[in-house]
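Worked example

This section walks through a single chain of length 201. The input is the sequence exactly as stored; nothing has been trimmed or padded.
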Amino acid sequence: MFYDLNDNKQIPHELVKRYTLQHFLAALYMDDGSLVLSKRINHQKKNIFLTPHIYLYLQNYKPNNLDILKEHIQKYFNINLKKSKRNDGYGYILRTTSVQETFNFLEQIKEVTATCPSMYYKTNWDFRLEKEKDKYERQYPNYNLLVTSSNRLRTYSEEEIKLLIKLKNQNQTDQSIAESIGRSYWSVVYKLSELRRNGKL
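Given that input, the structure is written out below as tokens.
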């Protein structure tokens, strides 16, 4: 079912409709995916900006098969992927379209991938970010490591910051804090990290 008559890989259209659990997305990503980080350095302000992307290296599937998979993931997991050109295989892979989609993807598979520590470098953003911090602190001491995100750019009010600190001091989880203040999980993670860095938490 996974190969056509010419032994080319194919997405079994009827079978894939059954793949609606996060386990499918997690297995696909852990097998054929990568968490790719592009960086931009502003030496004047001593800022390093990281932009995370999810890449699914499925270039051995024909483009029309990737369309089937892309539509399936959009329908059942509410994640927008786009085809991106490659020089090998049939010339295309799938990737997330924005930072928010990247975090949405990781959030979708979080409960499944939490049981697989060997894959944390591409499934656990907190783990990966700490690794990146260690790396860049050695290369660029005293630089700030920032993650590109529309949520990060939306300024927190003083009231939100006070509530954030209060809730964290009450040992609430980052997820419950995010729900309480109406922010995304990753936005809260970044803000808490910034507050710790500045000695406010």
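What to look for: DSSP finds ten helices and five strands in the chain.
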